[in-house]
Amino acid sequence: MNQKKIDRINELARKAKAEGLTEEELRERDALRREYIDSVVGNLRQELDHMWVVDENGNKRKVGKQGGVKS
């Protein structure tokens, strides 16, 4: 997600607190928020896909998608 979209999310948040949003602005805000969340989750998944856990014996295990560690 680019900085322009993040700035727009913040602009809409400020406007929502100050005076409220129109129906169109509410839809835009919701779509931008969903895109932002999807972006963050996608980046986190990429990081976890490249992460390994090393136990006290030096054994390496890949971190799994379900929050566990693959054997």
Description:
The chain has 71 residues and is mainly alpha-helical. It is built from 2 helices and 2 strands. It has a two-stranded antiparallel ribbon. Strand 1 and strand 2 form a beta hairpin. The longest helix is centred in the middle third of the chain and has 27 residues, at 23-49. The protein is rod-shaped, with a radius of gyration of 19 Å.
SSE order and pairing:
Layout: H1 3-18, H2 23-49, E1 52-54, E2 60-62
Antiparallel strand pairs: 1-2
Helix pairs in contact: 1-2
Keywords:
71 residues, mainly alpha, two-stranded antiparallel ribbon, 2 helices, rod-shaped
Could you give a quick summary of the protein structure above?
The chain has helices at residues 3-18, 23-49; strands at residues 52-54, 60-62. Helices cover 61% and strands 8% of the residues.
Uncertain runs: none
**What proportion strand?**
5-15%
The backbone outline, from C-alpha atoms, is rod-shaped
Q: How would you characterize the largest beta sheet?
A: 2 strands, antiparallel
Q: Please give the alpha-carbon distance between the first and last residues.
A: 34 Å
DSSP strand count: 2
The radius of gyration over CA amounts to: 19 Å
Strands of the widest sheet, in order across it, are 1-2
Average pLDDT: 90
What is the H/E string?
Answer: HHEE
> How much helix, percentage-wise, in residues?
55-70%
Number of helices: 2
* Sheet/helix structural class: mainly alpha
